[in-house]
Design brief:
The structure is a single chain. With 175 residues, this protein is mainly alpha-helical. The protein has a single domain, classed as Urease accessory protein UreF. It is 73% helix and 0% strand. Helix 1 crosses helix 7 and helix 5 packs across helix 6. It is globular.
Length: 175
């Protein structure tokens, strides 16, 4: 559900529009506005900020420095999918490969947390990751078919669940 909804209609479309030349500042503002759950928004910014910092050291480029400059000046927030996309695009990674890598890395991170927190178990975690390949492949196909009006069209039930998670009495991992 997470891959087919939030990652497809939000992060995935942001990556596609970035690759198509839509202004990174515009995309950053739209992502900030549409990520309703505070935890999801803050996680995107925290991971994006770290990726911008690491990317600036390891994969410097004019495009990445321009986005980092917007963030430093307070003109952009620094979302993770955009930081990832700017780096991937500046390295010449084809869009489909970049999108697949981003989606699968996200699923892998969530699965690693589940293996430790539930505990799900290593074998079950590997089965989840194998099944995620199909969901990621479908998401890549879906992102290619969507349009600007679809950007941010995420299931309200998923967002409500994410907002409820913010107020749980105890949590083991930061989202």
């Amino acid at each position: 559900m997470f891959v087919g909804q939030q990652l497809t209609y939000s992060d995935g479309l942001a990556l596609r529009f970035l690759y198509e030349g839509v202004d990174v500042g515009l995309l950053d503002g739209v992502l900030s506005a549409q990520l309703l759950a505070r935890e999801v928004r803050e996680a995107s910014l925290k991971m994006g900020g770290r990726l911008l910092e690491i990317g600036g050291e390891v994969f410097p480029s004019g495009e990445l420095e321009a986005y980092r400059g917007l963030v430093r000046e307070g003109l952009a927030s620094g979302h993770q999918p955009l930081a990832f996309g700017v780096i991937a695009r500046s390295l010449g990674v084809p869009f489909e490969a970049a999108l697949s890598a981003y989606l699968f890395a996200t699923v892998t991170s969530l699965t690693q947390n589940a293996v430790r927190a539930i505990p799900l178990g290593q074998n079950a975690g590997q089965r989840v990751l194998r099944q995620a390949h199909d969901a990621v492949a479908t998401a890549v196909e879906d992102v290619a078919q969507l349009c600007w009006e679809d950007f941010g069209a995420v299931s309200p039930g998923l967002e409500i669940s994410q907002m409820r998670h913010e107020r749980q009495r105890a949590r083991m991992f930061m989202s």
